[in-house]
Amino acid sequence: MSDFGSGDDLFDGVDTDQLFLIRPPPSSIKRQLKGKVDSDTCQSKRQRVHSNDSLALGDEGNASTNDDALRNDAFPQDVSDGQDHETISARMHLAQSLLAETFGHKSFRHEQERAIECILAGRNALTIFPTGAGKSLCYQIPAIAFEQLDLTSGSRAPGEHGLSLVVSPLIALMKDQVDALKRRRLPADCIDSTKTREQQQQIHADLREGKTRILYCAPERLNNEGFVATMQHVRGGVRLLAVDEAHCISEWGHSFRPDYLKVARFADEIKAERVICLTATATQKVTEDICNAFKIQPEGVFRTSAYRPNLNLLVRAAKTKQDKYPMVFQFLKDNPGPTLVYVTLQQQAVLLAADLRDQGFDAEPFHAGLGVETKTQVQDKFLANEVRIVVATIAFGMGIDKPDIRNIVHFDLSNSIEEYCQQIGRAGRDGQTSNCMFYICPDDWYIRENFARGDLPSRESLKGLMIDIFSHENVSKPVNETFKVSHRVQSRDFDIRASPLATIYAALELQFGLIRAITPEYSEYKFEPTKLYFPLMKAEKSPEGKEIYASAIKRQKLCHVDVNDIVSRTGIHRVDIVRKLNAMHDTGLIELKVGGVEQKYRILQSLPCSKKDIEVLVDKLHADLSRREEDALRRTKQVENFVTGDKCLALALASHFGMGLSDGKSKCGHCTHCLTGTRTAMPPRPTKKVDMMGIKRILDACDVRDDPRLLARIAFGIKSPRVTRLKMDKHAVFMSLADHDFEVRGAALFVIQGVANGSS
Description:
Layout: H1 27-33, H2 71-74, H3 85-103, H4 112-120, E1 125-128, H5 137-153, E2 163-167, H6 171-183, E3 188-191, H7 197-208, E4 214-217, H8 225-232, E5 238-243, H9 263-269, E6 275-279, H10 284-294, E7 301-303, E8 311-317, H11 324-334, E9 339-342, H12 346-358, E10 363-366, H13 372-383, E11 389-392, E12 407-410, H14 417-424, E13 434-440, H15 444-453, H16 459-469, H17 472-475, E14 482-485, H18 487-494, H19 498-511, E15 515-529, H20 533-538, H21 543-551, E16 553-555, E17 558-561, H22 563-570, H23 574-586, E18 590-603, H24 611-644, H25 649-656, H26 672-676, H27 692-701, H28 708-716, H29 721-725, H30 742-756
Parallel strand pairs: 1-6, 1-7, 2-4, 2-5, 3-4, 5-6, 8-13, 9-11, 9-12, 10-11, 12-13
Antiparallel strand pairs: 14-18, 15-17, 15-18, 16-17
Helix pairs in contact: 1-3, 3-4, 3-5, 4-5, 15-24, 16-24, 28-30
């Protein structure tokens, strides 16, 4: 995922200009805390073994697990029962002190205080706050408070205050969050793929010595066995696990991520004392999924309404996409101020930004395809008011703590109501009136439909993938043995996008219990030798070093080492060879370069081997992926129904999340529906017949006949690995039927299938 991908702000509502050092709470608070803090709220009743074993965060190794140890059996949800009001009051006085002295805020907002109280009492919690409502403080303050509570109560020795671990999907946001915490002199860090080996070693040393209070990681890190083992034995234990973007856990959520399904299992394995899940967008169904996964009681759910009275929710309809342009130009002339314009396609962002500049506006494009340096420059200019308008895909907005955004413009149909809610939440954080304008036209649906239908692989592709995974070699291996695959190669060979491929593997792991993802491996190791390399390696005594020196093949400047070949020939453990290469890099003998990531899986039970078993598995997976496709279309249709519905837009938005307007009002009084007294109608879609000549042009341009769905993707402009490999996305016929209604597309697809199958 891009560093600038979608997700909620991690440092919502915090004024980064006011930097305060941690100071101990006033002596009056200390007196209240002394002897009053129940040690059960500060440390788990579970006995832990705190190990100083040197478990490198990225090492390839085995992690012991205990699936039977459940957090809530060992650390009851209701540990605060029986605590007197003075104890609870003392904890919250400390929280209030940290809020003011460390973060520079006078008071908590909305449900922040109750959520923090729940966590400090040792219970699990779910916070559902709008973007900008300060979710991150709900875990930052407890993470800092644990040490003071421990010292005051005497329940833990110095250095045994444990760790708060934050799982977040976005590297850029993790780094921003850590930088902000460090400016406040708070011991925080993040572990991610950009860290050098030296940096990872320092992080591990800090964890071993109990110096780090808050550590951030991506959900994919939970597949690393070395990391899981480190968290199982981290000094003081994991006091709090914070799960940001928690809606990604739910298959009903608008941005489901398969790796998030493993977070609840991870929480049990590391014996996290308590968990807080955070999201800005959770429907009732998503809320239930999160609560079930993490055993969160109803009283542990803290929700504030998505309704923001300072946001004007506006909608305008156009007959065609081209008709939207003059509308946007006029709107921006009438409503000056910092503006985000959201579009669907990267090319659209570039073209619309250029059109705006031609109209005299100060505008820049932003999308995931731009270089990191360019994206950072655009973001910094927008924050500094050097650029007024950013035209962006969903890749922009995360980590932007700009309080004075006056306009959010949706040029295209949003992917979901949740996504729309997230994006408009970036406007008007200063409390001033801001506009959220949504332009709709019939053409919008086709683009969104293409995105939704692009992820479903053909049944033939799925069958080929299953045969590849459950090959004779893999099926012959006993339980607990491992096998490796390259997702990149499988995506290319079987024409399955990365996202559905990840979903398929998650199903094999979590739904069918066949395999478990473990630490990935690099398939390519190459290095550039320094002047020290040859004289020192000639005298090398270790078996690993001797084999590396003897087997390295020089190609131009770089020496290539086949680690797998050394393992198979000599029996030397792979981890020892990799550690030796890393040590050679650390001591300056070589400049090591790695590549070709291979995913690695442990076999949990006998794998399916018969044709019948494979067919059954393919049927189940295809049915599940088909359901996901329909769910994606349903969510997009919900957006269209929302903006064209006969109801106050603010009320409709709040109702989607099971909430209402303040004071039980039935309308906001300032959305398009309230101002006009009528719904905004979507103009009718023009009817089209099957373009037989267009179908013939596609068949003439592409000679593929083994996959009718591939031909349909070309016709309707849906990219896939195979479409890209054949360069059909560059051909004139690509997207030539994209503006057809789906019923017409269905007829066209039927014709294409007939030709592809040789029946016409």
